[in-house]
Each structure stands twice: as structure tokens, then as C-alpha cells.
Design a protein that fits this description.
By secondary structure, this protein is of the alpha/beta class. It has helices at residues 8-15, 43-47, 65-75, 79-95, 112-118, 122-134, 157-164, 190-201; strands at 54-60, 104-107, 137-138, 143-145, 168-170, 178-186, 206-214. Helix 7 packs parallel to helix 8.
Length: 218
């Protein structure tokens, strides 16, 4: 019997992911192979660039990988976070300019209430081993969620943007830093955009998202 965290089917699903993605928001583009350099943009990011500068995503939010995200987020299957982190570190090394690696890795923060209810922040469970694998400082409290917003999954795109518009506050100096922000799933990007705007307003030089799964459509 295998003692691995993932079965062979899920493991193969990771390695068979070969989508060409927008390098800003990680939305899948037409084509079948990954970009080898960071210069592809989707129409939305060309027309209205988000506050973040780049996004690295492992795969689409799809079967069977979606079940892994649910297991981590709602069923405390924390070993899955290390699987996400290991693969994110590899992908980040491949995708990001070696001369401009992030200075610090931070998770998308939960509100205090939700953190207490869940008992952990799934984004930090991914970010911590990812930072270690990259040899970069991880900081669980770099950004605070100061407004306990409604769950994003229950809202449409416009409501998501309004919901998180002023939800975050930077807790430590980020002037001139390249910040990597980690999350488990990226859907519309509204949360990550709001977080990046907060970091940029505080002086961050660059913000790169590291996300495990990306929904294929906004």
C-alpha cells in the first residue's frame, strides 16, 4: 500500500496540466503548451491591468484536483498543503526571473473569526513550506484582514470586488519589496487584486500571486 499523500490519478493530473496562461492573472489562453517566458497577456489584463504583476498557478480548478482544495480548506487535510507548496515552489522557480525573486512570502489572511472557526489558514499552510522551499522569508502576519467580509464564493464578480475593496491592512514595512502572495484557489482575482492594491499603496515594488488552482472562467 502506498503511503503517499496523493493517489496516482491525482498525481498524474498535476503533471498533465500544460495550459498556456496569461502571465498576469493565470487565465488559460488558447494553445496547449506552457509559456517558457513571462510575456503572455489575456485581453482583460491588457485592457484593465490588475494591481498584481504576475500569477503562477499550478492547474485549473477541476476534477480531481478541486477535491484536494476542498479537503485542505474544509476538512483539515493539511498534508495536501505540502503537496501544493512543493509544486508551487517548482513552478515559481521556473516562471519567475531569477534576478527578481520575491523578498517575502505571505498568505491571503483570514479574518480573526474565520481563523478561530477553522483552526488554521489554508493559505498559510501552503505558504509556509513554499517559502522554505524557495529559501525566502515567510510571514503569516504581513497583511491583516481588518474587515470580516462575506465568503467570496457566494458573490458575483462586482460584489466580490466591493466586498474586499478595503478589507486588508499592511502590518509591516514592505517599501521596495517584491511580495509573493499565496492562496489555494483563485476565482475572479478580486481578493488578490485588493490585497495587491493594499501592498502597492504601502510601497511594495511588485506583487506576484502563487496559487494552487485557477478557475478556468471568471
Amino acid at each position: 500500500m502506498s503511503h503517499g499523500t496523493l493517489c496516482g490519478f491525482c498525481d498524474e493530473a498535476w503533471w498533465n496540466e500544460a495550459r498556456l496562461r496569461c502571465t498576469v492573472c493565470a487565465m488559460p489562453l488558447s494553445g496547449f503548451r506552457r509559456a517558457s517566458v513571462m510575456h503572455y497577456r489575456c485581453g482583460d489584463c491588457l485592457a484593465a491591468p490588475p494591481a498584481f504583476d504576475a500569477t503562477v498557478a499550478l492547474a485549473d480548478y477541476r476534477t480531481p484536483l478541486d477535491a484536494l482544495a476542498v479537503g485542505l480548506k474544509f476538512r483539515a487535510r493539511l498534508a495536501l498543503a505540502h503537496e501544493f507548496a512543493r509544486r508551487l515552489a517548482w513552478s515559481a522557480i521556473d516562471a519567475l526571473d531569477e534576478c527578481d525573486r520575491p523578498d517575502v512570502v505571505a498568505p491571503v489572511p483570514l479574518s480573526a473569526r474565520r481563523q478561530v472557526e477553522r483552526g488554521y489558514n489554508q493559505a498559510w499552510e501552503i505558504a509556509r513550506p513554499c517559502a522554505k522551499a524557495l529559501g525566502i522569508r515567510g510571514d503569516a502576519t504581513l497583511v491583516r484582514r481588518v474587515i470580516d467580509t462575506a465568503p467570496q464564493s457566494k458573490l458575483d464578480l462586482d460584489a466580490r470586488t466591493q466586498n474586499v475593496g478595503r478589507a486588508f491592512e499592511v502590518a509591516r514595512p514592505v517599501q521596495g519589496l517584491h511580495v509573493a502572495v499565496v492562496d489555494d484557489v483563485m476565482t475572479t482575482g478580486a481578493t488578490l487584486d485588493a490585497l495587491a492594491r493594499t501592498l502597492k499603496a504601502a510601497g511594495a515594488r511588485r506583487v506576484t500571486n502563487l496559487v494552487a488552482l485557477r478557475t478556468p472562467k471568471n
